[in-house]
Amino acid sequence: MTSTAAAAIDIGRRMAALPTIEWTTIETAYPAVSKALDMLSADKELLTALVHHSWQSDHLRAKCEIHSLDDKIVLWDEPERGYRVRLRLAHTQQYERVHNHRFSFGAKILHGQYEQNLYRSNHELNENAKPEDFRVVSSRIEPAGSVLCIDHNQLHTTLTPPDTISLMIQSPAKKRKAFIMRLSDGNVWWRLGEVDETSERRQEVLMDQTTYDNWVQKLVGLGLIHPH
């Protein structure tokens, strides 16, 4: 796709065609989330335009982040309709961390796979929690093409091969911080929302041009978006 063609796409009109998502429970959200993920992943023209629009929008670009296990490119932000759409982009380095989220979400795996364990714990989620407090209640391999929905309170781990790419739609925030524990050593920390992070932390995680360009090249190489 040429840049002219990308610019000609009416992104707003195409996104408006997606169903509004009701995030009251994961059960109420699932039908619309699943449909929206299928519609977005099937429209390579739109996905390409969203990736490039993300970097051209000051609002969205400020939400694109780099982290130790994965990066994210935020493609669309429309909370009044239940939408924050992003790409989760897995690094080569992976380790097992049990965690929940500040938001509920749905994900469709575009490339690679998830090795996902769901956990239960009767222990309060705080700095005194230990790895042995968490019990696996479900274990699955989710291949490319799978759609999954996770409630914000669900504890889980996901291990991914290098360059696993997933398209995610997340709910508006349900809480201000999320619990994370590295199972190998029991180290606990918290993931905060953007509004609660320090300016130093925001600068630390902000995606840079080179990282963005490398991911765009990777997405093109995997056939997930058109050349620009």
Explain what the structure shows:
- The structure is a single chain.
- This protein has one domain: Sandwich (Jelly Rolls), CATH 2.60.120.10.
- It is of the alpha+beta class and 228 residues long.
- The N terminus is likely disordered.
- It contains 7 helices and 12 strands.
- The longest helix is centred in the first third of the chain and has 17 residues.
- The N and C termini lie close together (5 Å).
- It has a 6-stranded antiparallel β-sheet with strand order 1-2-3-10-5-8, covered by helices on one side. Strands 4-11-12 form a 3-stranded antiparallel β-sheet, with no helix packed on it.
Shape: globular
Percent of residues in helices comes to 25-40%
- What's the CATH topology name? Jelly Rolls
Report low-confidence residues grouped into runs of 5 or more: 1-7
SSE order in H/E notation? Answer: HHHHHEEEEEEEEEEEEHH
Overall number of domains:
1
Number of strands: 12
Give the name of the CATH superfamily.
Answer: Jelly Rolls
Task: Summarize the biggest pleated sheet.
Answer: 6 strands, antiparallel
Q: Given this structure, which CATH class is correct?
A: Mainly Beta
Q: Approximately how much beta-strand content do the residues carry?
A: 25-35%
Give the class from helix and strand content and strand pairing: alpha+beta
Strand order across the largest sheet: 1-2-3-10-5-8
- The radius of gyration over CA amounts to 17 Å
The CATH architecture can be given as: Sandwich
Tally the helices: what do you get? 7
Overall pLDDT = 94
